[in-house]
Design brief:
The protein has five helices and two strands; from the N terminus they run αααββαα. The protein is mainly α. The protein starts with 10 loop residues before the first helix and ends with a helix. The structure holds protoporphyrin IX containing FE (HEM) (2 copies). One protoporphyrin IX containing FE binds next to helix 1, helix 3 and helix 4.
């Protein structure tokens, strides 16, 4: 059961969801931790490089995941769900998708704009080119500061959305006792439609 059906998620969507959930939580924790360390330490430098490398893994996975989502039916939300809740769920998912692209991209622009010009070498192996930074953003420091702000507030927005996302998943499971959480864990609800 690789593909989604109208009643549930297939293996591929489930694998994307949980692999990326773990990676993103790790990236948020690493980002907050590394920025609290003394900036000139060698360990801080290495953690920044690790953060950048895994950030590109998130970007690659996000692109594949979006493609997969567009090529698959999306499971419908419970029919008893009020229209505004359906809209909120939909907007929440769009917001999460937007941020899993926006964070790596603003991070990429930030390091590209930086006057330090530190290269990004994925896992010390594959060099990633710097992005062209629009001159309208001012000096290198100003452009770096701009993307740093977007990256930081993007991360806070992602944390806030995730709190609501997880609370909604737990409410569905423990209070409404429907299949919302189950279908992101097992392919049984997806199979129910095809049987
Ligand atoms: C960094 C963490 C997470 C991100 C970025 C994330 C993102 C998403 C996105 C974009 C969707 C929409 C479905 C899709 O197209 O793939 C989704 C669905 C879902 N997520 Fe998460 N999620 C995260 C963590 C969690 C956690 C920790 C839980 C559970 C406690 C959870 C429970 C669910 C459930 C139950 C659905 C299915 C909703 C439905 O059937 O409509 N997610 N998630
Ligand atoms: C899912 C992907 C990512 C997440 C969730 C994430 C999250 C974070 C967080 C929470 C911080 C700390 C915010 C602060 O207090 O300033 C941070 C900082 C940082 N991130 Fe990311 N990040 C991601 C991807 C990337 C990528 C791809 C790059 C670069 C290629 C990058 C470069 C940086 C840098 C250089 C900082 C330090 C900024 C400073 O010195 O204040 N990040 N990130």
């Amino acid at each position: 059961m690789l593909r989604n059906t109208h009643s549930g998620y297939g293996r591929v969507a489930i694998a994307f969801h949980w692999t990326m959930a773990l990676l993103i939580l790790f990236m948020l924790a690493l980002g907050l931790y590394m920025t609290s360390l003394p900036p000139t330490d060698q360990t801080t430098f290495e953690l920044y490089q690790l953060h950048k490398s895994f950030g590109f893994v998130v970007l690659g996975l996000a692109a594949c995941r979006l493609l997969w989502r567009l090529l698959n039916p999306s499971p419908s939300l419970p029919s008893r769900m009020p229209a505004f809740e359906k809209l909120a769920a939909h907007l929440g998912h769009v917001g999460l998708y937007a941020l899993i692209f926006a964070l790596p991209i603003t991070g990429w622009f930030m390091v590209s704009a930086s006057p330090w010009g530190i290269p990004t070498i994925l896992f010390n192996t594959w060099p990633i080119p710097h992005l062209p930074v629009p001159a309208a953003l001012g000096s290198a420091e100003e452009a770096e500061g701009f993307f740093k702000l977007l990256h930081e507030y993007g991360a806070y927005l992602l944390i806030a959305l995730l709190v609501v996302h997880v609370a909604a998943a737990l409410k569905h499971h423990f209070i409404q006792r429907d299949e919302t959480l189950k279908r992101m864990v097992s392919t049984a609800p997806a199979r129910a439609e095809s049987s």
